[in-house]
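Limitations
The structure tokens in this dataset are predictions for the assembled complex, not deposited experimental models. Users should treat interface geometry with appropriate caution, especially where small molecules or nucleic acid strands are included. An illustrative entry is reproduced here so readers can see what is and is not provided.
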Amino acid sequence: MTASRLAEGGAIDRTKPISFSFDGMSLSGFAGDTLASALLANDVMVVGRSFKLHRPRGLFGAGYDDPGSMVERLGPRPATNQLATTTTLDNHGVYRSVGTWPNARRDLGAVAQLFSRFLPAGFYYKTFMWPTWHLFEPFIRGAAGLGRVPGADVWEPVSESRFGACDVMVIGAGPAGLGAALVAGRSGASVILVDDGSAPGGRLSGDGGDPQGWAERSWQELGAMPNVRLLPNSTAWGYHEHHLITVLERDPRDAAGLDLRNWKIRAAEVIVAAGALERPIPFANHDRPGVMLASAVRTWLGRFGVRAGQRAVVFANNVSAYGTALALSRAGAGVTVVDARAEPEVEAISALTAANIGLIRGSHVCKAYGRGRVEAVDVIDGRGRVSRLTCDLVAVSGGWNPTFHMASQTREARSVWHEDLATFVAAHGPAGFRLAGAARAEFDPAGCAMDGARAAADALAVLGRKAPALEQPALLEPFVTRRVSPLWFVPPRKKGEKVFVDFSGDVTTDDVGLALREGFDSIELLKRYTTAGMGVDQGKSGHVNIIGIVGALTGATTQTVGTTTFRPPFVPVEFGAIAGQRNKARLYPWRHTPLTDWHIARGAVMYEAGLRWQRPGYYPLPGEDWAKAASREAKAVRETVGVYDGTPLGKFQLKGPDVPRLLDLLYISDFARLSPRRGKYGVMLSDDGLIMDDGVVFRLNEQQWLLHSSTGAADRVHQHIEQILQVHRPDWQLSLIPVTSQWANATLCGPMARRVLEALQPDFDVSREALPFMGMTEGLIGDIPVRVFRVSWTGEASFELNTPARHALALWERIMAAGQPFGITPVGSEANHILRVEAGYISTGHEVDGTSDAFDLGLGPLVSRTKPDFIGKRSMELRRLADPQRFELIGLLPVDPAKPVPEGAPLTPNGDKADQEGFVSACVMSVARGRVIALGLLRHGRARIGQTVHARVRNEIIPMTVVPPVFHDADRARVKS
Amino acid sequence: MSQRYPARITRLPMLALFEARGSEAGLLAALAAAGLNLPPATKSIAGQATRPCVLRLGPRRVLIMGEAGEEAALGEALDGAFAKVPGADFALVSDMFAAFELSGKGSADILAQGLPLDLSEAAMPAGSATGTELWGTTVIIIRSEVPQPGFRIIVDRSYAGFIEDWLTVASGGTSALRPGVMIAPPRSWKPS
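Predicted assembly:
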């Protein structure tokens, strides 16, 4: 009673033996084997244990339809949750079954079977509840796991993710796919042909149905066409909008050192020739090792030269299994065919007779015996008489389900019941998407090839190309399924016998009945309640049987019951393949100024500054944390001089006679009369009257202006202005050019700033008279062209030195050298935060929080009283009329001068757990005042100066005094000095 | 070890680049006054074989591209020309962009990893230029024939390190993390 390797046959390379181990057993196979075929050749029947009940399980399907031969590969290339049927056998491979202990043959987890009565579908909603589910949860989750992540030497595949494009994409290189690809390729269209095998032919490979090697010749012809790309070892795993199809290619041959390649292919026309999957006929204990799909038995024989048993019973309700019976018989096995139909096809009966194979008609296999391997089956006839057949292999065929999953993923295809074949097919689909061959329920191989050709011709017609004719290939298949007598399951004769309908989740017919009794009668609900179809195989072999069972139990037709929705991925896909090389440094497109290297060399800790920019947060000296460093830097600005890199600020060049009109439309203040060489602070509102951004606008000359935005709002402001220019005011004469990265910016600030500027020896006058506050000038510092703007955000005299980015480093180094005698300090954004809070300047994200308007923040005096209109004016006024209870900007001093308050902390009446009457927007340890200060927004805040309010931080209440929102240089004397 | 895609990846020295915007009539007049042609169609280049050339990126937007040594002369010519056209403007943007050249076997394989466009000769013939996305950044891609068949990538200078690292790794090379080039994520987030 053994499975064994035949002396000859199969597409394996018998000149290359391979040794490997599985669950501690030393075994051998050949190059070209999968792990599964090699295990079967070594008569290893138990390859794993089931998920819930730990029943011994063997191989069932021969490809991705196998429901659970999961293994861990401990070496080479350690990885877990690999499917044995699709894993190539590695030389010196070490494999382990998943979820078993100590191994699959003797698993202690089998004790779960004693409790099977307490583990029906949805048991965790009803049991393990007292005293608390969380007591049992870790144990149950641990027992439910699949695979262990390998240890330190885990394999890290080299992956690539890339885009592709083609005229015609053909999925599947069986007869239909090859027919389609030949027609499309010969017409000159660009074609991509995807197949998950390493050799073409689909079901033809190894079945002996292609004696002239048509598949191989077609593949060669296609490979020689420059307009055709072949993707073997590749699985199309997802359909996304507008024919974007994702494909996972393994071990691509055209790229050295690449393990995985994920394609994102945009195709003009798609042809899915993905074949069909066989389904079983569930009966009691049909999950025993040795019970397999008939097509799988045939694949083991044809492709791998492995005979899965010596005494076989073939159980079927359609004629395709007869091919398996004959192949087994030719390979030397004793075979008996049990056909559920009373009247099988006449040719089929003759063929069995000629081969001396016994046939039992109109009968069902109703039970399998054996534990680690099937030993016998019971067969029941139309009159209820039961006989026992000794066997070591049961090959089952309950019909064929076209693989139209991708059509379902398009969300535009309906599942329609096909009466003769007792299965679902896909109807309709989006334009340019076609099924061909067995995926369209055509099961004759020659017919498939012509069906593929027809689909390609239709596709080419849409593309405006002529389709060359295809010669019908001579492909043999004597037993083509054309009618199936539906048999969804064989009812158990004794109570307690288990009929599994979903191996991956250990779901039985009892569970389906339970779900229906509990009211989960929609197929989507039933799937989720029982977990049928949610396991490793995603219901590939079981779902139509379950739909049939539900129909039978509820009296609904299968069409009414319908299918669940198929979603990507079609097979498991490594996340790493999708990511490709998007990791480490390439994970996210950070933006850097020309000075980044200098900052880092100086020890700066980099922060995100908005819009992907990175800027220094602080420059810690040895022993300093962020707070100490920020304090030291801020103090330097208050007492001597600091310099910071302001390059990321948004900058926009405007020119034209209509620029003043634009600025008046954009900002709340008047801009039209701004003099050349002068700047003005502007606040920009959005349509809803709330603050979008603020910044300074400089008039360079009569015609040209420079608009500045904050770093984070640059793109938003750009789009806002472009929309006005292109959509709302296309007749205005002006142009806008973004120049943010063109200009680097080093801002000197502090009482000594002007002296450092003088020390740089500019060729222009920087005196207070020549360069007043909000003025500008330009010229050379050495040979470096510089434009200087006098703006400030720090509450000290500030000079923004702008230079084309190529000079950024040279200028910065000059500044550091010239400033050294004055104790110049580089300043980061943490210190900037302290400085601006002290000076009472607002900031987006803090005071500008999306609910405060210009008046709330004390900017009312800036709002023009003469302009008839500007963006946001009306909304702002209406909002203020409708809701006079506004939050207003105020300063806050914690009663305890050393007590920091988290930014965002709510202010509530008396600190009660009540609705907030305000919040703390910014809080820092002030260097100017030597104590904690804060800014905040408070209802009617301006009328409450002097009062005490309370911040509530969880259960702590922090009293604070309300003060005017400025703590340093309130008269702006220092700024204007 | 031979590189997976052995294309040549070069970061070009700074080019002379000017961006010009304005109405079609305005651009036509201003460019003509500077001795340059406005390409009639968008996503195309005028004068690629000679320098300087004009890339038309949109109905009202062009990029004027010359070699570094030509910047001063080109700037002066454009200054004079655009001063006479009130509704059109130009700006020096040589410092704003970094340019890379990709040439030889494997160029398309490298670019296809970050760029969703069809890079075939049919869809993108020589002389085409378009704005698109590359690994999440906005770039201008030009299919060039000179000096060798390949692609020229123009990207905002702030992304230069990111793109250079991607091109290297996508070609099969190792990440070129030069000391001091900051390309790991920041430790904290603080808006300012």
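Some entries come with short summary sentences. For this one: The first helix of chain A runs from residue 35 to 41.
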